[in-house]
């Protein structure tokens, strides 16, 4: 039984098992959610409605971002991500 929801395995599956990519996705989405909650809609990617935001306002933006990633609502374009090996 996991204390953390969504489970890290689900999250990593959505980010090609790359924990750094997962952190980047979650950070960007949490930033966008935070901006939207503050009324700065320009940077917000996608949230269903103001009602949805009001319902979720008890949650932290990062928790909301992880939930969205887990449900497959947040993704990335692998063609635009530069990955370099050292």
Structure described in brief:
With 86 residues, the chain is mainly alpha-helical. It has 4 helices and no strands.
Write up this protein:
- This protein has 86 residues and is mostly helical.
- The protein is built from 4 helices and no strands.
- The longest helix is centred in the N-terminal third of the chain and has 19 residues, at 19-37.
- The chain is globular, with a radius of gyration of 14 Å.
- The mean pLDDT is 77.
Topology:
Elements: H1 8-14, H2 19-37, H3 50-56, H4 61-70
Helix pairs in contact: 2-4
Summed over residues and divided by their number, the pLDDT gives a mean of: 77
With helices defined by DSSP (H or I, 4 residues minimum), what is the helix count?
Answer: 4
Number of beta strands:
0
- In terms of DSSP E residues, the strand content is under 5%
Give the H and E element order. Answer: HHHH
Radius of gyration: 14 Å
Termini Cα gap: 37 Å
Helix content: 40-55%
Low-pLDDT windows of residues: none
* Main sheet overview: none
């Amino acid at each position: 039984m996991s204390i953390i929801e969504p489970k890290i395995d689900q999250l990593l599956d959505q980010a090609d098992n790359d924990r750094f990519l997962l952190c980047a996705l979650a950070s960007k989405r949490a930033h966008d959610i935070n901006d939207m909650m503050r009324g700065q809609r320009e940077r917000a990617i996608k949230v269903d409605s103001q009602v949805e935001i009001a319902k979720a306002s008890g949650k932290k933006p990062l928790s909301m971002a992880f939930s969205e990633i887990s449900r497959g609502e947040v993704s990335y374009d692998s063609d635009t991500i530069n990955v370099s090996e050292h």
